[in-house]
Amino acid sequence: MKKRIIAILLTTFIMTTGTLGCTGTKTPASEVKPSESEQVIVASEIPSEMSVTEYLGRDFLQGQLSEGSKLLLKYGTDVIDFYSEQGKAESSKDFPETFDLRDQNIIPEVRSQNPWGTCWSFATIAACESSILSTQGLTVDSFQEEYGMELNLSEKHLAYFANTALPDKKLYEEGTYPYETDQAGEGAYSLLEGENGLYNCGGNYLESTSALAAGIGINTEEMFPYQNADGQIINSGDWSIPEENRFVSSFALKNTNVLPSPALHDEDDNYIYNPAGTEAIKSELMKGRAIGIGYFADQSMPAPSTETVDVYVKGSMEEFPELNKEYVKMFLYYRNNIDAAQSKPYTDDELREMLKVRIRINGFPADTYDADSLNTDQLKLLLNTNDFGNRIEDISDMQVNTYLNFTGENNSVWAQYTYEIKHINHAVTIVGWDDHFSKDNFLADHKPPEDGAWIVRNSWGTDWGMDGYFYLSYYDQNISFPQSFEFLTVAELYATDGEGEDDQTIVAPPYQYVFENDFMPAEMYNSTLFNMPVYTANIFDSEGDMDLYSVSALTGDLNAEVTVDVYRLKDGFQNPMDGEKVASACETFTYAGYHRILLKEQPHFNEGEKLSIVVKESVMTDEGEKFALVNTTAIGPNGVTQYRMFHKEECLDLSKYNYGIVNEGESFVSYEDGEWHDWAEEIASFKEDEFLSAVAFDNFPIKAYGFPGIEEQTGTE
């Protein structure tokens, strides 16, 4: 039996404060400083060498899972190349030299994540918004006209529930628990202080996928605004959302596409440029889908507490009583990019008044800069620069950051090229590209090898960068985890109800049953390949009378073929196939990720009936067809101590852990031996492994979706 493991291990992005929760191997800047003349290694030039070992029996699976848990503890939530030996072909498609989704008017306005570390949620939502508009064939303006509201989705809802576990049943009186599930308590737990600490726990696109697939997180800003209960955008107060709003979703997710990255890293942590990754990102952008990515940001946007603001303002006014209190506070908010608190862009007059505040507070003579003679870009430069006090002409030529360069007239162009491998700390969204963006726009001492850059949307408001945007070199060594999101069309969503599309809308669709057991946000998933077919299955109880119209599975390989079979199970069933097969489907998916499969047959299930979804995944390799077992994991409660010991010298820590619950009779796996094994029993045996004891396991990532239906006689034995 020849197999390999392909793992996704995503960065926890929490870039917003001076304290970063990222982990992983770091290379000091002094150790890696390539010159402009150095050649970039292209992935397709590296021979593909698969390390394949022969194993007998299921011991192989435990060995691979053990190895995966070691990676999880070693790298925490840092970069692991995804497609491994796959996705390294030269670019073969023709693309326009420049492309920008903003030109299609499907990119809503830039927003600010402050005061929290929720960049991952903002990047996810930004990618989803563009995809929803392109799916419906609408623009920002036409969506407003058709639905009477702007497309502004809630980052708060996604961030809150993705980092909040299902409540404990002990908190409810008997019979009042809101969910019919045995997974109470499953999910993420913050290790940060305070009830709002979960907003600074970070997240990644796999966690976003876990939430969105469960019907969490795609709601309007109007329903769940990014503010506390008092309507304030400050890092205090009540930011919670009532539990009854957890499984609320205004749009239906169809696919997530985990793309090959342009930046690969070999086992020795050497950078390899991967043109297939560049091609994949461009292909998705051409389909109207912005791309969420991770990268290393060498700027941070600290968000002081209201108490800190008050102390700062009070102290400033005591020392400089001649200053205007409101402009002192405005200056502090501006420097910390809390522009959302202002609810409007800063005017030139406000920028001038803030500059006068900075001159005075920093102890410079009042005539250091003539604020009244400066333009908007010059004012912003002086308010942001760390070289305050120098001549503005000199500041224009100085570099405030290590990798981010300011160029163009009045430093109007922001361009980043990270020339060494760093740990990922921030999530942003690619909206376009420019093949001719000159390498001369980047740092003089560290130019990328060729022209070309991505157009990237940040989540630090419009007062940062180029109205909230910046350029990122194609050859940045830390572009990671590019992912796009697809949504069901109106026709797909309503294909099973027998009605036409008139008066139907994809916004706020009618209630759907979502059957699942895997409520734990996935930080990592494994695709283990076998020589012979393997099957995974989840068992569900129908929560009501419903028509099953789609199922979903997770893939971990390129061009994976997914076959699903739906069974109406017998009373006293012995395995997931012990019943009547009532629906089947088969599809091939280009990229790894979450995939929903629409069923041509829509079997009806009465309340209380048991059904199973059986999944088989196959993928073609250089050695022929292989069969994948996909499972999800995260760092569990026992992993906190192990992780801290692992990273003691690096002084790294975790911001959260996950708790997974797999009960007997919920998930099953059939290996090459052809026998069905209860996944709960398998996990119990895994836990005997030192490293596996640190890992939280979950049910298989298989879900079922249905519309409410009318009870009918099934004739089930």
In short:
This protein is α+β, with helices and mostly antiparallel strands and 717 residues long.
Description:
With 717 residues, the chain is α+β, with helices and mostly antiparallel strands. It has a domain at 306-400. Helix content is 20%, strand content 23%. It is built from 14 helices and 30 strands. Strands 2, 17, 18, 20, 21, 24, 25, 27, 28 and 29 form a 10-stranded antiparallel β-sheet that branches. Helix 7 packs across helix 8. The longest helix has 18 residues, at 119-136. The chain starts with a strand and ends in a 9-residue tail after the last strand. Residues 1-11, 14-57, 77-81, 85-91 and 339-343 have low confidence and may be disordered.
For the structure shown, list the relevant keywords:
single chain; 717 residues; alpha+beta; ten-stranded antiparallel sheet; nine-stranded mixed sheet; 14 helices; globular; disordered N terminus
